[in-house]
Structure formats: C-alpha cells, structure tokens
Amino acid sequence: MRSSGLIIARMAGTCRSDSGRRPFRRLVGTLVITVTMLLAVSPAIVVAENQSQSAQGTADEGLNERVKSLERTVEELTKERGSPKAGESNVKREEGYQGATPGTSTEVPEHERERGMLRQDNYADPRIDNAPFDPQLRGFFRLPGTETMLRLGGFARTDVIHDFSPAGNTSKFVTSSIPTGPNPGSDNTSMSVAPSRISVEIRNNTKYGPLRIYYENDFNNGPNTTNSFRLRHFYGQWQNILIGQTWSAWGDTDAIPDTVDFEGPNSWIFRLQPQVRYTYAMNKENNVAVSVEQPKSEMPGTVTAGTANTPINSNSPIPDFVVRYRHEQSRFHIQHAWLFRDLGGFVTPGTDKHVFGWGGMLSAAAAVYGKDNIMVQGIIGEGIARYINDLGEGTGLDVGVKPDGTIVALPAWGVFGSFQHFWSERWRSAVTYGYLHVNTTDLASPAITNNSNTSFNNTQYSEANLMYSPGAGFTVGAGLLWGQHVVKNGDRGDDIRLNFVLQYDLVNLGNW
Q1: Measured in Å, how far apart are the chain's first and last C-alpha atoms?
Q2: Which end of the chain has fewer surrounding CB within 10 Å, N or C?
Q3: How far is CA 329 from the centre of its chain?
Q4: Residue 94: pLDDT band by 50, 70, 90 thresholds?
Q5: Pick from 445, 435, 363, 436: which is nearest to 408 by CA?
Q6: Taking 60 as the threshold, does the pLDDT of residue 80 lie above it?
Q7: How distant, in Å, are the alpha carbons of 349, 401, 450, 451 from that of 303?
Q8: What's the average model confidence in pLDDT over 379-384?
Q9: pLDDT 10s digits, 189-228
Q10: 177: which DSSP letter?
C-alpha cells in the first residue's frame, strides 16, 4: 500500500510540471489512480465474500440438520401410534364410537345368509350378541351427532293369484280353509299387496355390548285381500335379553322354505307374540334360550250338551314357556325346542277347567352344494294348534270339549321339507311339501263348527316355484301350488293355485 502511494505522488508531480500536456496527463492520472485503488481494495472484497459464503454455508447446514431431525421424530411417532389405514380418517373420533360396525365379532352362519329368501322372515329374527344378518350393514347410516345407526327396510310386493277350484282364502294358501264336500264354486282370480312391509332397525354399540331395536309391519291383517295394518315385530335386545314382540322361540325362521305363496307350509310354526327371552351362548356353536310368552287358549266357541249350546270362554292364568337348544355351524344348524302351556277356561257358568298342553319340535337346515340347501321341521304335541301356521287364531283347535264338560288337549303333529336349487346367480327354484294332522276323532264336540263330523282332521300343502332376480333387490316369480283339506267324516276339498309375484326390496342384501 505504501509503494502504491509513492507512485501515485510521483505521477501527480510529473503531471503538474508539464503544463503543455496537462489535460491529457490529468485523464491518464485519474485512470491510473482508479485502477490502483481497485487493485488495493479487491483482496478485501474477496475475503469478505468468502467469509459471507462460509457463514451462509454453515447456516444452511444447520437448517438441513434441524429438518432431518424433525423428520426422524415424525417417523418415530408414526411407528409408535400406527399410520391410518386405507379409507380411515385422520380426524379424531368421539370416545367410544365404533363407526358403522356391528359391535360384535359373532356372525350369522353362512348357510342362513346366503340362501335366497323372498319372504326375508329370518332377517328379523333375534341373533346371539345381536349379530347382524348382513355383515356389511348395508342400508345403515349414522344419525348426526349420535352413535346410533339406523336402517329403513322392507319391500313392495304384488301378488296375482288364480285358483282353479274354491280356495276359501283367496290371498293366502291356507289349506285348512279349502271347502270340503260338494261345492258349486268355480275358479277365481285375485290380486294383493298386503304382504308388503316396512321395517326400521336401530343399532347402538354401547359400552357393555350392542343394542338392537327392530320394528316391522305389513298389511296382511284382514281376510282375503283386505289391506289392514298388522304389527309383526317390535322388540329390543341387549346382552341377549329380549323384551317385546317377535317370533316365538319355539319356531325356527332359518328353516322356512322359499315359497312364492306368502302363507308358507301348513305345519310351519308361525307365532308372533310379546315375550321376555334370555339366550345363553355356551360357546360359538351352541346356545340355549328360555322364553316366557303371551298365552291364549284356542277353544271352540260353544259346547253341545243335549239340545243346548253352552258358551265357552277361555282364560290363561300363566304364560307359555319355551326352552330351546340350538347348534350352529357355517354350513348347517339343528334346533330342538319344547313348549309348555296351561289351557282351559270357563266351560259352564262357575266352572273353571284347565288342562296341560305341551309341544316338541325338531328342525334343521343345511347347505348341500354351493348355495343349494334343504330344510326340514317336525312338530308333535297336545294343545299346540295356536302355534301352527295352518290353524292359529280362531280355529279353536287347542282343546276339545266332551259333552260332560271335560276338556282335552288335542293331539297334533306335522312335518314339512323343502329343497332349494340355484340354477344360476339370478335363477332359483324350491319345492316344498307339508302335512298336518289334528286328532279330533274321540271328541263329540266340534273344533271349528257345531257338527263334529266336519271338524278338522288333516291338510296337505305343496309348492314348486321358479324365481328370477333381473336386478339388485328386484324379484319376479311364479309358483304352482296344490292343497288338500280333509275333515273327520272323510270329506275333502282340493285346490290348485297359480301364484305370480313381483317384489322390490328397499335394501338389497346382495345374497341372491
């Protein structure tokens, strides 16, 4: 720096001594001074730039290290808590809410879910641990702001029916209503929408197990084609304790044949009534149930004593009791149950008479090949007519009354069997046969009419059908039925019926 100053001073002096070349020398001197100053300052600039770059590099390296550290922390937290699975939300759920899940690991066996059923009666049936009939919970949605799931179900159905002989009941194939003996009647055509249904199912996964409330009605409460409201199911079940109205525990809805006819086989156990039931799961495959159910004695309206008819009024001092055992596996199930009843009433003024009634049943259903399946049921007992599909309310066939006023629980037995075959995913058929007998031979008093010779003896029921499902939840089908009704004196009546059906399900279960 000092030598550079001397040179600049000498150059400046030389320029001042030469006045003739003063302008040119001034310009040269200025340039020399400028270049010299740049040469002097440039090392400092280079050093400053190097220091700045070094500082910037150190800052960048520190920032990168911090980012890498944060990434490692996030990765460790993710491993500890588990990353969300596909389809799950990262939004924190309310404590205790399980989402659209049944709340139980128990499942309805495959052979009960996969077979086609136009009637869908087994969907409403109470299940162990409230296991859903449909594992996918199709049709359910969550009520906003709650943990309650709701499903609106049911179906719209229309039947077109043609009887080639008098049938008695023109909308349901009730074989006990077929007229017997000489009858001038002819064929008949009718239509009905009475079997159509509406259902509401509510599920809530409580802290102590799933709660299920089920409601269902149809419009099949009137005679023939009359469309009158009928309550079918309205019950709640929690911890395998059921309170409300549903199928009697004595029946087996998983053994109901797939019939076009809404009535079904004559000897099927059909009873919807209020009850309190507890079911105990012994293990995954075995369970037992005890049920206390609505009682009622079906007795004849009058008893003939000489030339007088004495009215009879039934009464029921205690409820009906059912004890049931059930064994279930994926491809089949077996059920055995016993019914115990107190039957009777006021036979004569001031006279109260009662008799013990009982019934036993055995049923089974099994998948035999693919979705093809068989179903069988047998019943036997005394005083069980109220629980039998072909008899039920108003027939008075639980007991008979002798002229001396003695009441007798009428012996009865019945069987049915059915085989269902799937031609393809959309086509299926089922053949069903049933037989029912009630012993009224030794009774002088009638069971249905005031003529003991025309009291009920037996009926037969059969159907062969073909059903087609062209789209989801939509079924059309046709069934050919034959039925026979025989009374005590041997008179009989027969009917052949052709039944067409069109049904659309509100919720498609996707099993057929």
Answers
A1: 102
A2: N
A3: 19
A4: very low
A5: 445
A6: no
A7: 12, 7, 8, 11
A8: 96
A9: 999 999 999 999 999 998 889 999 999 999 988 666 567 8
A10: G
**Contact assessment for residue 114 and residue 370, using Cβ atoms and an 8 Å cutoff:** no
Rg of the chain over CA atoms, in angstroms?
A: 43
d(CA 43, CA 37): 11
Q: Give the span between the Cα atoms of 97 and 81, in whole angstroms.
A: 19
- Residue 89: CB partners within 8 Å, gap ≥ 6? none
Closest CA to 4 of 40, 42, 56: 40
Give the tokens for residue 26.
Answer: 């001034």
Measured CA to CA, the distance from residue 286 to residue 334 in angstroms comes to 10
b vs e for 110-147, b when ≥16 Cβ sit within 10 Å of the residue's Cβ?
A: ebbbebbbbbbbbbbbbbbbbbbbbeebebbeeeeeeb
How many other β-carbons are positioned within 10 Å of the β-carbon of residue 21? 12
Domain borders along the chain are 2-75, 110-505
pLDDT in tens, 421-460: 999 999 999 999 999 999 876 664 444 444 455 688 999 9
Give the rounded distance of the alpha carbon of 46 from its chain centre. Answer: 83
At 120 the pLDDT is: 86
Beta bridge partner(s), residue 428: 422, 467
Angle of helix 2-17 relative to helix 22-81, nearest 10 degrees?
A: 150
**C-alpha torsion 72→73→79→83, nearest 10:** -100
**Residue 27 vs residue 101, higher pLDDT:** 101
Strand ranges inside 132-229, DSSP E: 140-142, 148-163, 188-192, 197-206, 209-218
Number of helices (H), then strands (E), belonging to the chain: the values are 3, 23
**CATH number assigned to the domain covering 110-505:** 2.40.160.10
**In this prediction, what percent of the chain has a pLDDT beyond 70?**
73
Name the 3-class secondary structure at 261: coil
